From TrEMBL:
Pfam families, A to Z: DEAD, Helicase_C, HRDC, HTH_40, RecQ_Zn_bind, RQC
Enzyme category, top tier: isomerase
CDD domains: DEXHc_RecQ, SF2_C_RecQ
A molecular-function term among this protein's GO annotations: hydrolase activity
InterPro entries: DEAD/DEAH_box_helicase_dom, DNA_helicase_ATP-dep_RecQ, DNA_helicase_ATP-dep_RecQ_bac, Helicase_ATP-bd, Helicase_C-like, Helicase_HTH, HRDC-like_sf, HRDC_dom
Catalysis performed (reactions): Couples ATP hydrolysis with the unwinding of duplex DNA by translocating in the 3'-5' direction
Domain Helicase C-terminal: 215-366
Designated name of the protein: DNA helicase RecQ
Residues covered by the Helicase ATP-binding domain: 26-195
Length: 715
């Protein structure tokens, strides 16, 4: 099974290796075990049911809560050559009926549905009449009331499973790892504990950073400017904040959209589409945005405020870098923001025990903002990994900024606040410290304070930032409400009494994520043209990672292209020529000499240059170049039978041939049985035991593939 799984991975998806957990999950599922897969966002859960779907004889039903994204998922699958469709409420009835008919006729391997569909009786009737091999339940935490996104209709799934005969294999998938949610899932779906596969939660390509004590708007603008053109999501805690930040970016002419639950559905969809289609590169949003977002080239996720717990943080931050490219996850941390989250918990309808549970999670989120040790380590530790190592690349691990002693300035600020009786906010305090001529200051007599103008060599903005810094460090405590008043904490008292020094780090340097080269831009342009023509988001055509690899490896032909991550046979066929011609033209123009792209994919024996006279080797080379048997026969003007015998000859001579590509996976078991039963390796008696659609060559390929076993009589 695993060999076949690997073939599907390579030929359809164009990937060389399984990621952590995928192999294990696929093996369990194809062995008929109901499985719970827990992998982080972006870890690659989809392949864990898409590949088995190709290996199983029947249909795979995928239940997913996000109808707005089903179309993209299906488009992406169709592009890799996997027949699939979706059914949801966005489709007109006529279209639904047509699709149901096609499903009934076995035209699809994968069918995506929303859980609500399970409440439609006619649909349930259909499900009972077709052969369902696998039921994949995406975002499976939705089944649990402890999860962060409970969906009552997920509870229908249990009934569904009991009604379909024979029972399909069940695969539940989630990125939520809390024990309570896990338990709910396995109990409700009757999954055995030993069939829970949980991978490491590390995402190697994410670089975490906490930025505190800085002007957040300014940081944001600088960051976006420095990384212009890169896709990013900015999460803010409230709709109002989203509107404000969005306006701020818009005024600066930055290509930003926004998304929150206060907007109409049409507006939200439109904004989301523009983001997915690379029309706008920035999305400012509340946590309402992003569940199931498959956009793979999100390069940064910035949290303007802390979310309510680490689960949400990791899920939202994890939307960066699904394509495996280096990406940044930045938290702009201000301790007072915890108050918004506390407020939301307080206002909720949870019972007291549950609220306490939420508060304690919030405290751990705040502690993340404060920690000075490795951020990734903190996250992995939170998710239950034992002894996670330091990452060496997060903001804390790489922090080499100098500590500057700012005790005296801190004393000036703190004593000024004390003299103002701890009854004012940041702006007013900064004005007094810088000696502002504001009338209001005069009217309350603050111009008479000894601290008036004590920092007049600085501007108001700098002093405000410094006050933010003191707040972040816990010397000041803002009160609740829209115009928080700053109060001194116990630590502030220590500073004022000269018992505690204050150190401040220099400003954070804003890193530039990636430098894209000229060719990458050209390829991106071409990708955009295809995306527009085919009305799909660009990343459905090729991921950024694939384009970047192309622009570095400079493939010269189809064979080279196939070595590149994310290019399977179907995509090669659809786009190969066009992308090659852009690359070739670029290299010609720049006078770049190219080497072969090193073969990484399958260990292929290299074919010597003198193949011209050995006919079967010419055939072999053409096969390696990605041609089908039929095409080779046409091109060489020989019969398909000859091509087939060439391949067998090559195999005998030790040239590696991937026979699986000629054995449709759904037939393999049948062929194996027939070979057994015929007690012979002669083709005709075997063929007689099999349905007509299984060709001689499929049997031949099967025998070649298993030749060692066959000669030992094991098959
Ligand atoms: P999630 O676990 O969040 O559902 P996805 O299934 O959406 O993650 O996968 C995230 C990205 O990783 C996708 O772009 C997918 O094509 C890519 N991916 C998945 N498996 C592999 C693999 N074995 N090698 C390379 N890329 C992969
Ligand atoms: Mg997913």
């Amino acid at each position: 099974m695993l060999n076949k799984a690997k073939t599907v991975l390579q030929t359809y998806f164009g990937y060389d290796h399984f990621r952590d957990g995928q192999e294990d999950i696929i093996q369990k599922v194809s062995g008929g075990k109901d499985t719970l897969a827990i992998m982080p966002t972006g870890g690659g859960k989809s392949l864990c049911y898409q590949i088995p779907a190709m290996l199983f004889p029947g249909i795979t039903i995928v239940i997913s809560p996000l109808i707005s994204l089903m179309k993209d998922q299906v488009d992406a699958l169709e592009k890799t050559g996997i027949p699939s469709t979706y059914i949801n409420s966005t489709l007109p009835n006529g279209e639904i009926n047509e699709r149901l008919n096609d499903i009934y006729n076995g035209n699809y391997k994968l069918v995506y549905i929303a859980p609500e569909r399970l409440e439609v009786p006619s649909f349930l009737r259909l499900l009972k009449e077709i052969h369902i091999s696998l039921l994949a339940i995406d975002e499976a935490h939705c089944i649990s009331q402890w999860g962060h996104d409970f969906r009552p209709s997920y509870l229908q799934i249990k009934n569904l499973i009991s009604q379909i005969k024979p029972k399909p294999v069940v695969l539940a998938l989630t990125a939520t790892a809390t024990p309570q949610v896990q338990n709910d899932i396995i109990e409700l779906l009757h999954i055995q504990k030993e069939h829970v596969v949980m991978t490491g939660f590390e995402r190697e390509n994410l670089q975490f950073q906490v930025v505190k004590g800085e002007d957040r708007d300014r940081f944001l603008l600088n960051y976006i400017e420095k990384n212009s053109g890169q896709a990013g999501i900015i999460y803010a805690a409230t709709r109002k904040e989203v509107d404000r930040i969005h306006l701020l970016l818009e005024r600066k002419g930055l290509p930003a959209g926004k998304y929150h639950a206060g907007m109409s559905e049409a507006e939200r969809n439109q904004q989301q589409e523009r983001f997915l289609f690379d029309d706008i590169s920035i999305m400012v949003a509340t946590n309402a945005f992003g569940m199931g977002i498959n956009k793979s080239n999100v390069r940064f996720v910035i949290h303007y405020q802390i979310p309510r717990n680490m689960e949400s943080y990791y899920q939202e931050a994890g939307r960066a870098g699904r394509d495996g490219e280096e990406s940044a996850c930045i938290l702009l941390f201000a301790p007072q923001d915890a108050q918004i989250q506390s407020f939301l918990i307080e206002q909720s309808e949870m019972d007291e025990g549950r609220k306490e549970h939420e508060y304690s999670k919030l405290r751990k989120m705040v502690a993340y903002g404060h920690t000075e040790s490795c951020l990734q380590q903190y996250i992995l530790f939170y998710f239950g990994e034992e002894d996670p190592p330091e990452c060496g690349k997060c903001g804390n691990c790489t922090d080499s900024r100098e500590h500057v002693d700012v005790t005296i300035d801190a004393q000036k600020v703190l004593s000024c606040i004390r003299r103002m009786n701890e009854r004012f906010g940041k702006t007013m305090i900064a004005k007094v410290l810088t000696g502002s001529a504001d009338k209001k200051i005069k009217s309350v007599g603050f111009d008479q304070l000894t601290t008036f103008g004590i920092l007049k060599e600085r501007n108001q903005k700098e002093v405000s930032e410094f006050i933010d810094f003191l707040t972040a460090e816990g010397y000041l405590l803002p009160t609740d409400g829209q115009y928080p008043v700053l109060m001194l904490t116990e630590n502030a008292g220590n500073v004022l009494r000269g018992k505690e020094p204050v150190f401040r780090k220099e400003k954070v340097r804003i890193a530039q994520l990636v430098e894209d080269n000229e060719l990458f831009e050209l390829l991106r342009e071409l990708r955009r043209e295809f995306a527009e023509k085919e009305k799909v988001p660009p990343y459905v055509i090729f991921s950024d990672a694939t384009l970047r690899e192309m622009s570095a490896a400079l493939p010269r032909n189809d064979n080279d292209l196939l070595q590149i991550k994310g290019i399977g046979e179907r995509k090669l066929e659809a786009y190969g020529t066009d992308f090659l011609s852009v690359i070739n033209a670029y290299c010609e123009e720049k006078d770049i000499e190219r080497k072969h792209v090193p073969m990484m994919k399958v260990e292929k024996k290299s074919v010597s240059k003198s193949t011209k006279d050995s006919s079967h080797l010419v055939t072999y080379q053409m096969l390696q170049d990605g041609m089908e048997i039929e095409e080779i026969a046409l091109e060489r003007e020989i019969s398909e039978r000859t091509v087939e015998s060439h391949l067998i000859k090559c195999d005998e001579e030790g040239h590696e041939i991937d026979w699986d590509q000629f054995i449709p996976s759904q037939y393999e078991e049948m062929i194996e049985k027939a070979v057994d039963e015929a007690e012979s390796t002669r083709l005709t008696p075997i063929k007689e035991l099999l349905p007509d659609e299984i060709s001689f060559f499929m049997i031949r390929a099967f025998l070649q593939k298993n030749k060692e076993k066959v000669t030992k009589g094991e098959v």
